[in-house]
Specification:
- It comes from Streptomyces yokosukanensis.
- This is Sulfate ABC transporter substrate-binding protein.
- It is found in: Cell inner membrane; Periplasm.
- This protein is an alpha/beta fold.
- The chain folds into 2 domains: about 240 residues, 3-Layer(aba) Sandwich (D-Maltodextrin-Binding Protein, domain 2); about 100 residues, Periplasmic binding protein-like II (D-Maltodextrin-Binding Protein, domain 2, 3-Layer(aba) Sandwich).
- Helices cover about 40% and strands about 15% of the residues.
- The chain is built from 14 helices and 12 strands.
- A 7-stranded mixed beta sheet has the order 1-3-2-4-11-5-12, sandwiched between helices. The protein has a 5-stranded mixed beta sheet with strand order 8-7-9-6-10, with helices on both faces.
- Helix 6 links the parallel strand 7 and strand 8.
- Helix 2 crosses helix 10, helix 2 crosses helix 11 and helix 6 crosses helix 13.
- The longest helix is centred in the C-terminal third of the chain and has 20 residues.
- It starts with 11 loop residues before the first helix and ends in a 14-residue tail after the last helix.
- The N terminus is likely disordered.
């Protein structure tokens, strides 16, 4: 790394970068997602910007439901015309950022911490946040036999998805606000932080390896189905109960070369969110159907229903909360103070919102201009 490049996560960056990636034969990253057979190219449709395809990445969880629904219901394909949607799923932010940097995907749905990481590590040259997608959907779920109040969390073992990820930073910040001391790197201190993949966390909880977890949906509701109790909803810690959990990012060179394709994807995202909010039950079913297509397993109702209720779908990237989350990482000792000026380019999104009669959104001083 060049001497003038300040890493986002001190000492933890290498650990994040070393995480294994899932192989996808077509691009080397992520897992190929399935498009709905009903998402046919309309007769007479033309390619956008001459592109054969636009490669879209997202996670297989409900906080990325805009992408799940957009693919399942054909919103992306409709706006892209004869340019095919080429989707891929990821388990972790670092692997999606690697895919974006390599050109294996063009646009992605991702959490705030990986977006900050990717932007900062590249000296602001890698990506731009071009839109919002979701808020909320993160909870502290605990074993009620071991923890009955917030103060009981002290001395216990709490899982977070990954060192330096969005939920890890949030839990470390919350613990610090309780007056507890925790070494961010090792996770040891007044409370023990156990970094555990979301897929493994329910088993770790069931075995007693952890006493609770600060996790996104649907993992939180899976823990509740295992007998866990929601002790805290992270949204209660934020003004208006809103904070960014999922953003839309784009590779900067793709944005420069193919703005019409980016506009088409953002238009589809806005339409998908509008449809989700107007048809919550149908949207929930569509998201679950796409999860089943991608992973081979749908979520049961006792997990799907409560998880869905805790997520808000919004085109607003809630930029002010991204800055706050970065400050939390700095305070936890995971982040060198980053320069986030220019991380957002909301020009195309605001054009789309204005054209659809919706209110424009703010970059909170972190825009390109």
């Amino acid at each position: 790394m060049p001497a003038n490049r300040s890493p986002l996560f001190r000492r933890g960056t290498a650990a994040l970068a070393a995480l294994p990636l899932l192989a996808l034969a077509a691009c080397g990253y992520g897992s190929e997602a399935k498009t709905d057979d009903t998402a046919k190219v309309a007769a007479g449709a033309k390619k956008i910007d001459g592109l054969d395809s636009v490669k879209i990445g997202y996670f297989g969880n409900l906080t990325h439901a805009t992408a799940l629904v957009g693919i399942q219901k054909g919103f992306f394909q409709k706006e892209l015309g004869a340019t095919r949607v080429s989707p891929a799923t990821f388990n972790a932010g670092p692997s999606e950022i690697e895919a974006l940097n390599s050109g294996s995907i063009d646009i992605g749905w991702i959490g705030p911490s990986p977006a900050i990481n990717g932007y900062t590590k590249s000296d602001g040259k890698s990506l731009k946040i071009i839109g919002g997608s979701a808020s909320g959907g993160v909870k502290l779920v605990v074993n009620p036999k071991k923890i009955s109040s917030l103060k009981d969390v002290k001395g216990k073992k709490i899982a977070t998805p990954q060192l330096g990820n969005t939920q890890d930073v949030a839990f470390l910040n919350w613990a610090a606000e309780q007056g507890w001391k925790v070494d961010a790197q090792s996770g040891k201190g007044d409370v023990t932080v156990v970094r555990t993949d979301n897929k493994i966390t329910p088993d770790a909880y069931a075995s007693g390896s952890v006493d609770g977890a600060w996790v996104p949906e649907p993992t939180a509701s899976k823990l509740v189905a295992e007998g866990g109790k929601v002790l805290l909803d992270e949204s209660s810690l934020w003004p208006d109960k809103k904070f960014v959990i999922t953003n839309i990012i784009v590779r900067q060179d793709f944005l420069k070369k193919h703005p019409k394709a980016v506009e088409a994807v953002l238009k589809a995202s806005v339409e998908a969110n509008k449809w989700i909010n107007a048809n919550p039950d149908q949207a929930k079913a569509a998201a679950n159907k796409q999860l089943a297509a991608d992973s081979g397993k749908a979520l049961p109702a006792n997990v799907l229903d409560p998880a869905w209720k805790s997520i808000r779908f919004t085109d607003d990237p809630l930029a002010a909360t991204l800055g706050t989350e970065a400050d939390h990482a700095v305070q936890a000792g995971l982040l060198d103070k980053p320069n986030l000026k220019g991380i957002y380019d909301l020009t195309i999104l605001n054009k789309v919102l204005k054209a659809s009669g919706e209110s424009t959104v703010s970059a909170a001083g972190l825009g390109s201009s």
